[in-house]
Design brief:
The chain contains three helices and four strands; from the N terminus they run E-H-E-E-H-E-H. By secondary structure, the protein is an alpha+beta fold.
């Protein structure tokens, strides 16, 4: 699924580069990691989106090549902590229903 197809939509995006991630305004929310074409490779939630994206960036697995390419962009939607679980479940379920499976890096044993 492409990131432009998720609802409610991601509100912000940044290149998946440490320089850009360090300059994000921090918030709680849900996020997607996509390839250059916008295909969702991973979706998650965090109390601190900035810190979580930096953790992903600092992972040795961030360079992992999937059948859909590598992570090149981060997208997120600010959300109060009380509604993070519902938003993340909604995103993942819509991806699963549309594509027939979870994003490649959300699957058990995925590289990120």
């Amino acid at each position: 699924m492409n990131v432009i197809d998720i609802h409610p939509a991601a509100e912000h995006s940044a290149p998946f580069e440490l320089y850009a991630l360090n300059r994000l305004a921090d918030c709680s929310g849900c996020y997607c990691l996509t390839n250059a074409a916008g295909d969702i490779l991973y979706a998650g939630q965090a109390i601190s989106v900035q810190q979580r994206l930096i953790q992903h960036f600092n992972s040795a697995k961030k360079e992992a090549l999937t059948n859909y390419g590598r992570v090149s962009r981060a997208w997120w939607r600010a959300e109060p902590t009380v509604s993070l679980n519902a938003l993340e479940r909604g995103w993942l379920e819509s991806i699963r229903l549309r594509d027939g499976s979870l994003p490649p890096l959300n699957r058990a044993g995925g590289p990120i």
